[in-house]
Each structure stands twice: as C-alpha cells, then as structure tokens.
Amino acid sequence: MNQKGDEVLETALRRGFIWPSFEIYGGAAGFYDYGPLGSALKNNIIAEWRRVFVVEEGCLEIDTPTVVPFEVLKASGHVDHFLDAMVECTRCKGAFKAVDLLKEQAGVDMEGKSVKEMSKAIRERGVRCPDCGGELGEVFEFNAMFKTAVGPGSKRQAFLRPETAQGIFVDFRRLYRHGRGKLPLGVVQIGRGYRNEISPRQGMIRLREFTMAEAEVFFDPKNPVHPGFERVASERLRLWLAKDQSAGSEQITEVTAADAVRQKLVCNQLMAYYLALTVQLLRRLGIPESAVRFREQLPGQRAHYSVETWDAEVHTQRYGWIEIAGFAYRTDYDLSRHMQHSGEDLTAFIEERKEKVVCHVVEPSFGIDRIFYCVLEHSLATEGKRKILKLKPYIAPIQAGVFPLVTKDGLPERARQIERELRTAGLRVEYDESGSIGRRYARADEVGVPFCVTVDHQTLEDNTVTIRDRDTAKQVRVSIENLAEVLKRLIEGTLSIESLGGQES
Amino acid sequence: MNQKGDEVLETALRRGFIWPSFEIYGGAAGFYDYGPLGSALKNNIIAEWRRVFVVEEGCLEIDTPTVVPFEVLKASGHVDHFLDAMVECTRCKGAFKAVDLLKEQAGVDMEGKSVKEMSKAIRERGVRCPDCGGELGEVFEFNAMFKTAVGPGSKRQAFLRPETAQGIFVDFRRLYRHGRGKLPLGVVQIGRGYRNEISPRQGMIRLREFTMAEAEVFFDPKNPVHPGFERVASERLRLWLAKDQSAGSEQITEVTAADAVRQKLVCNQLMAYYLALTVQLLRRLGIPESAVRFREQLPGQRAHYSVETWDAEVHTQRYGWIEIAGFAYRTDYDLSRHMQHSGEDLTAFIEERKEKVVCHVVEPSFGIDRIFYCVLEHSLATEGKRKILKLKPYIAPIQAGVFPLVTKDGLPERARQIERELRTAGLRVEYDESGSIGRRYARADEVGVPFCVTVDHQTLEDNTVTIRDRDTAKQVRVSIENLAEVLKRLIEGTLSIESLGGQES
C-alpha cells in the first residue's frame, strides 16, 4: 500500500469505476462491481484485446457456457488438480490459504510445495490463526471450483468453469473443420472464470469471479511456427529466467523475440510470438514496456497441464509486480485427455506427412480485471493539484464532454442538441453544465475524458465550438458540421489537436 | 418445426453459428455454444443494443457478479418465488415441468395456476410420464436457481443470478449519486443469467444459461415521463391487450406510442417509450415491425415483482410467436424490499416537492439468445438454389471476404496483403482462395458476408479491386487506397454500391 495506489482506488471508488459488490449487505470478499465508468473502460480494454487477437490475428472466437459438467473437468484434470492448500483454525474455525499465512507470518514462499511440507512449516515456524491467534490444524487440499448441479436434485454435478479454455478444447473437432484444417489454429474466448478462493484479501487482484480472455493456439508439434512472426521479430522482450530466479537474482534478460527463439530461451516461435504481441497490446493500453516483464515459472509453480509457463507481469505501485497474463505450453495434454475420456477422435491430419497428430497448444491467457487495475494506475497522473487520468483516448469511458460555457442565453439548449447529435453518431459523450468551466474540465480530466467540447456565444453566431485536449489543455475551434468526424479521428489517433492548429487557451 | 426453421438450424450448425455444448460428452440440455460466426453475430447484436441504450439513451452500464449471496435473493423474493411447478414419474423418476406436460398431452395452458390445480388436472386428464408412460406423482415447487456456496464448505449459500437486475438494485444509492440525483435514471447490465430448467427441450429458446440485456429505469412515481418521448411518439405499436386474450381473440390493437399513453393502454409514458424503442431496435437488427407484437401479460402470468408486464414477441416459422423481451412495471417492489432487508436508505429526494420517495422502476429486459435466433431466421432468404443470409451489414460476423480471382500470377499474395491491411484498419475480413469464385461468393452469401473484394489481374496493373454486394450481386471497382474507408461506409450504410456506380457483373 502507498500513496499512489490509494489515490487510484480512492478515485476509482468515488468516480464510479469500481464498487464493492453487495455493499448494502455487508459485501462479499473476492467480488467487485464495475460502475458506469469501470464497465465502459473494461469493455474498451476487451475491445482492444479482441482487435488484436480476433480482428488482426484472425483467431476464431467462441462463447461457451460457464456452467460445465463434471465429466469435462474430470477429464481436464481440474477435479483432481485445481486445489488450494487450506488450513483451519482449531479454535475459531476460520479458513485460510496456507501459502498466504506462511508468506505473511514466516516470510517463506511455499507455492507448489506439498501439504505435508506446509503443515510442517506451520508447526516449526509457529504460524497461528491471524484472526484469533488460535492453533492451526493440518494443511489439506480444497478444490477451488464453485460447485453446482444441473437439473432438479443433484442429478448432474457441475462446476463454474475455472478457465474458459475447456470450452474450446471440447469443441476442437468442429473448430478444426471450421478452420478447414489449417494450422496453427488460434481460438479465443472472453468471459467469466471462477475460483472459489478460501479467503481473498487483495481487492481486485484476487477475485472469486473474474473476466478472462484466453487464446488456445493449436499447432503441429513438429512445426511450432507463426506465419506472421516477422511482424514481431524485433519486439524486445524482458525475460526473468527461471535460472536467475533460482539463483536469487532479479536480473532481466532483454532480447528480441527472434533472439529469444534463436537462443532457446522460450520453447518455440509461437510462444515468443504471443509474448511479443502482449508487449504491443499493453503498449496500446498505455502500459509502457519498461513496466512489463515475463517471468518463467519454476517447475513447482506450473499448473498440472503445462511444461513451460511464462507470466506477464506488470509493475504497480500498490501491489508490486503482478501477473496479468500467463502463457502455458499445454502440449497435447488437454486434447489427449479429452480423447481418452470421451472416446472421440480429436486428431488433426498433417497433409504433407500424411500423418494424424494430436495438436499441441500454446495458451496466452489474460486476466482482464488485473489489466484494468494496471491501466488505471499507469494512467493516473498528478500535475500540481490537478489529477489527470491519461487514458488512451480509444479506451476512455467517456470520449467527449459537452459543456455550455454558461447556463443562459440558450447555450445549454444548443449544447444539448450537440450532445444528441454526437450520441447519434455513436460517440460516448456526457453533458455537464454544473459549476465553473474550469471545474468541469478538472472533473473530466480526473476520469480521463480526452476531449471537451465547449459551446459559447460564438457558437450561436458561427456554428463553431472549441475542443480542448485533456493532456495538453490546448484548444482548437472547429465547425459543428465536422465535429463528430473530427472527434472520431482524434479518438482513434489519426488526427491531433496540434495538427488542427490547437493552442494554449 | 417446419422447413424454414430446419434450414436455419441446419445452416447455423454447419457454418459455425451455434453448436450443442459438451457434444463429445453427450451434450447437456439447455446449453449452447456460440461458434465463431455466432459469437461475432451475438456480440454485434449486443453492440447494437448498447448503442441504443447506452450511447444514444445515455443509460449507465454496470457489470456485477453472476454469483449472488443468499441474502440478496431472499430480499428480492427469488428464494421464495422463483419456482417451477415440477412433477416426477413414480416409475422412472424422470422430472418434468408440469406446465409443459399439461400443454403437450392435454392441450391446456396452466401457466400461473397453483400446484394443486395442476395435480388435479394431471389426474383428471390422464397425463402420464412422456418417457416411460408411468404414473406421475404430485406437482410440487422447485426453485429454479442454480445453487452454489462461496468459500470452503457451504459456509455462505449463494445462487447464480436469475436476472442481472438485482446487481443494479443493490447499487442504487451509488448509481443515484453518480447520476447526480437526476430522474428518470436508466441503468443497464448485459451478461449471463441462469435458470435451472427442469428438462429443457426447445433448443435455443429455453436455455439454462443465457445472455440478458436489462435496463432498470428508476423514476419519480408522480412523474413517469421520458424527456425524449417526442422522438418516438409516432412510432406504431402493435398491442395484444389482455382483454382480447381473455376473450380468446387474436385481435391486435395498433396505436402510436403517444396514443397508447393517451388511451391508457399502457401504464405510463416510460413504458410506451421503451416499447417504441424496442420496435426501432428490432428494425435495426432486421426484424420488421410486422413480425413484432406486444402481449400484455395476464394477471396470473406476471412475475412476483410486477403489476403490469408486456412481452415483446417476434414471429418465427420454427416456434411461432416467441417472447424476446419483457417490460415489467416493478413499482417500488425491489428497492423497498432491499431497504427492509438491508436496513439501508435507498430513497431519492425530489427537489421540487422536498420529498423523499422510493423510486418506481420500469424494466425492459431482453433475451439476447432468442433475438439471435430471430435475426437468423428473419435474415435467411432462398433465391432459387441460392441461400443468402441477409444480415444488416453492421451486424454481419464477417464484414468482407477477400478473394484472389485465381490462385496464380501473384494474385493470392496481393490478396493476402489486402486482407492484412483491412484487418489492421479494424475490419473483420476473411481470405478465401478455395474453389471457383462463384462458389466462394455462394459460401459467403450463406453466412451473410455483405461485401466481397476480388483481386484480379487488373489489380496488379492499376491497384483497383472489385467490391460485390451480397444482396444485389452488383459490383463496383474501387481503388485499394480507399478500400477500407469505402467498406466502412458501406457497412455503416452511409454509402451504397449503387451510389458508387455499381453494376450487374
């Protein structure tokens, strides 16, 4: 915790980005509501992700249920392996994540260790119940999926999906046919994921219900290449290698995507491709590459399905480095398991070699809520007393403010007309007439409105308005006739206030 | 069932609009996957809804959890009233919805009747188990919410939300403040809703997990007006009044929105406003007003929170008239209940009267999956042997096809370049080189691709391509330099092939 992080959360709460869920009933840990501005920002972040992965990359997007039958998650290994090591207080019966207590009270990182080792460490290091100080019991495994049942009674056991990925794997045959057998085949899904955390205590960073954007990239294991690799080959990756972590070093290895493949620092070209794409995506969202690193997971830390995993981490002032995406090399694990359990053929046919193969998979998986937090923190700037949320205009929740200079002489009516025209043109705008124009600009700056349109007396004479740029405070006068078009181009970045002749006011 | 309906589903399955969920494990009734084309179409329908309700109307959009604690749904009445009348076979233990069996086997509509009346009707009319012919037991009530628990054990009972609305109601105080006390205050939410149907058997029409788009419009009960009513006042509404239904008449009363209010056919102006807006929205989605009617629910049919409900129904060949949206006048039911149960003050302050009031609510609630089906059915046209999915270009999953005329002379490479440029410009395009150009056009027509770009030998000489219009098959030659811009304007409808001088090829 620190000043910047507190400022971000305070602004986010007060201005309607995020709110604690079910607040009037005392709240529920691990759940957050996106308020009006947060919901728009989140949607815009998703739109950018979709633009990169679906529109530009051409991945197929599908949308499958969040309620998933037992058989599917038995096959995927989640019934047996999606576990959290839990410990209960023998006195107050409070439940805790063993790893968290060990970290907090003993300063040791036991992620990936066995329950026996954790029980032993708890005893030896005198870790106690954080609520009542009571003695803790033995550490045991708790399946972190939310349970439910489909139909009356408990006839058919089901879970809320822990990842969107399984909805893709079970559809592989149809997807492969839809893509006419072409490999690599990228398939994505964006939607809710669930993890029934034992006792989440990290706000937006550890949620029980979250939004994921995942890609499963199926490929011929003998040919793990991306046809567009050249486009990202020179993108620089900041890698925190496993060997350096094991040696206790914070050393970052900075290489181009091409060199990461050449030097075998990553498992294959596809992996390098998606790491590079992530740097580009985060940059588009306003997170500079200097605040991004890729951490190679150590063997004990990887999920049950992965043989190599990279975490994309973003540096924040509030939480330090946080994982915002994971890149797992899932091999043929999932498809093979589903073949075994369903008895169906999920192979691909490699024409050149006349060979049936089970595709391997590289999975870039993004946590949208965490990216949302990072975008907010990296955008909030303080200039003197002025707070400015310097969101990229194309992800700003409100694209333009419309203000009458004063609330008389017919200016509000004219401004309302303009507001209506801009809304009809598809722009997300907000009308504001309350308080001085300076105060309205300040209010708009704080929530990241990139452009403010002011209607003044000259407007009534010559049908022009001023547009003010959030980041430079420069203004330019434009004709109402072109207003929607000019704003759209300013927002997408193909036009700037300066190029229109904007000046300090 | 009938030919048109079968054609729609056959095309939808074969071409990747919808797939049965968890198919390789034998499927799960009441769940559907959206394939690559379906997911895009659904997203585009949601985008149009959002454009109307959020961008144009200025409603606040929020995004709250799908997992909802017991207390919230106890307060909302769902724990006690979200019930389905169920009956089990005494022999095979099969579970059925009593209303369905009574309709299917005895031809009576007992929606809204008591379990006693239904039990009696089952006995008297000799309704039997549809699976094994066995005798049925007594009808009883089954709560149709999916149950789960938050945290380890069953510590905190929770449900998957039956509607998105409650997430809005519990946030009322924050929303009211965010909207600076202005009424009416429209708040929307788009997301998953769940209903644990007993045994769903109607494909996409009766889902256990579905996507809803709901608006809760809070207003001063003494002033149920919409400031923009004039914009829709002359929109014509086709109403099927309760009195005509009770009299066994199919008579439709067609009135303008203004007259519906004046003649007191609907409860207030806000209700009429949203009915009219719905006609406009459906028209934008390609569903003509002649296929839309508003059915006034009979007293026994209404949900526990509503005193007047209208269903928007769309006529389909497959299922007859189906409900795609409900408009409930929820009065102050929800806010009052949450005030009682939480002890919090959720009133609004009416400045003019210096009076605290509990807002009333009109709720337009849309079922996106059903609208999706209606859009597909209303768009599928057959012209001779040619099938054309005449989707409005702005909701088409693929906005343009890019085809090399032949697969030699460098045409594929040039077409690939153009594909890449269009993707970078944000257009959803697809490259296709397989089969004759006529076959590729036909394939594109069937999935509703509105424009196809063909790269031919002339392209290599003068950097022009042809654009072919799906609905008229007219073609026009344009410069590659302007291609993205021209396509964008064709898609949004501000330009037509004819205005560009397009001709029959």
- The gross shape of chain A turns out to be globular
Which oligomeric state applies?
homodimer
User: What is the rounded Rg of chain A?
Assistant: 26 Å
Cross-sheet strand order for the largest sheet of chain A: 3-10-11-19-16-15-14-12-13
Largest interface, counted with CB-CB under 8 A? A-B, 80 and 80 residues
* CATH overall fold name of the largest domain in chain A: BirA Bifunctional Protein, domain 2
Strand pairing plus helix content of chain A: what structural class? Answer: alpha+beta
Helix content of chain A: 25-40%
Could you name the ranges of chain A where pLDDT drops below 50 across 5 or more consecutive residues? none
CATH architecture of the largest domain in chain A: 2-Layer Sandwich
The portion of residues forming beta strands of chain A comes to 25-35%
Please report the number of helical segments of chain A. Answer: 17
N-to-C span of chain A? 38 Å
Q: What's the number of structural domains of chain A? A: 3
What composes the largest sheet of chain A?
Answer: 9 strands, mixed
Output mean pLDDT of chain A: 95
CATH superfamily heading of the largest domain in chain A: Bira Bifunctional Protein, Domain 2
CATH class of the largest domain in chain A: Alpha Beta
Number of strands of chain A: 27
Quickly list its features.
Rossmann fold; 505 residues; homodimer; alpha+beta; six-stranded mixed sheet; 17 helices; globular; BirA Bifunctional Protein, domain 2; 32% helix; nine-stranded mixed sheet; Herpes Virus-1
